[in-house]
Amino acid sequence: MSIHIGAKKGEIAETVLLPGDPLRAKWIADTFLDNVFCYNEVRGMLGYTGTYQGKRVSVQGTGMGIPSALIYANELITQFGVQNLIRVGSAGSYQEDVKIRDIVLAMAGSTTSGINMQRFHGASYAPTASFGLFKSAMKEADKRNISIKAGNVLSSDEFYTDNFNDYKHWAEFGVLCVEMETAGIYTAAAKHNVNALSILTISDSLVTGEKTTAAERESTFTDMVYLALGTL
Ligand SMILES: O=P(O)(O)O[C@H]1O[C@H](CO)[C@@H](O)[C@H]1O
Ligand SMILES: O=c1cc[nH]c(=O)[nH]1
């Protein structure tokens, strides 16, 4: 057991899917996995292990934002030997051609978080996806005929910003969408020499104002889960 994860040694698989929402973790376990058991209820941040096509896999809620996600990423890697961290999250589109329910593979995670500025003494570190996981997800997307977008995403420290139009600056520099954890998870994975990938489904668009409902965000993003499970 670690401070925030109530699993015994060996109860968590080498590959863990990481939704921000713990109820999305439950939905993924209930919908896609066999032989499922719940290994974590600490703070309601549900974690499950099961099998997908005979292969062991876990799914663990991370909560929202880099500080919360880093607690789970660090404990999963250092206490439970996790090798592959695959975020399955929702994101807001910054680009006209990135539409609601589109899937984005995050090649890199820009961020407004201060964590890496502190760590690298004011210099700018570029957290990136693991190439192997990225290639596997692309291959699965081709196999399933799921169209994807890939590029830079913004991991923001704020959901509610003071100036809505600030997003346009990131958009001008090619950032595809905004979420709140990828840059932290990629950095933790790099530090510990394990693999990470963020697969994101567009839940709303800052460009058009369209939104999906909370229920939809919890439980209808099936293609992204198939891409994540396809990397096993
Ligand atoms: O749907 P999840 O995975 O939680 O991801 C996005 O949704 C939350 C904000 O509503 C943030 O965690 C953001 O990264
Ligand atoms: O962090 C997030 C997630 C979805 N949509 C947003 O606008 N921000």
Write a concise keyword list for the protein shown above.
Rossmann fold, alpha/beta, 8 helices, 232 residues, binds 1-O-phosphono-alpha-D-ribofuranose, 32% helix, binds uracil, 5-stranded mixed β-barrel
Description:
By secondary structure, this protein is of the alpha/beta class. The protein has one domain: Nucleoside phosphorylase domain (Rossmann fold, 3-Layer(aba) Sandwich). The protein has helices at residues 22-32, 66-80, 115-119, 131-144, 167-172, 182-191, 214-219, 222-229, and strands at residues 15-18, 34-40, 47-52, 55-60, 84-93, 103-111, 148-155, 177-179, 195-205. Strand 7 (148-155), helix 5 (167-172) and strand 8 (177-179) form a beta-alpha-beta unit. The longest helix is centred in the N-terminal third of the chain and has 15 residues, at 66-80. The structure holds 1-O-phosphono-alpha-D-ribofuranose and uracil.
Helix tally equals 8
Mean of pLDDT: 96
N/C terminus separation: 25 Å
What string, H for helix and E for strand, traces the elements in order? EHEEEHEEHHEHEHEHH
Rounded to an integer, what's the Rg over CA atoms?
Answer: 16 Å
Shape descriptor: globular
CATH class reads Alpha Beta
Question: Low-confidence spans: pLDDT under 50, at least 5 residues?
Answer: none
Main-sheet strand order equals: 5-8-7-6-9
Number of domain modules: 1
Task: State the fourth-level CATH superfamily.
Answer: Nucleoside phosphorylase domain
Structure ligands: 1-O-phosphono-alpha-D-ribofuranose, uracil
Helix content, binned percent: 25-40%
Number of strands: 9
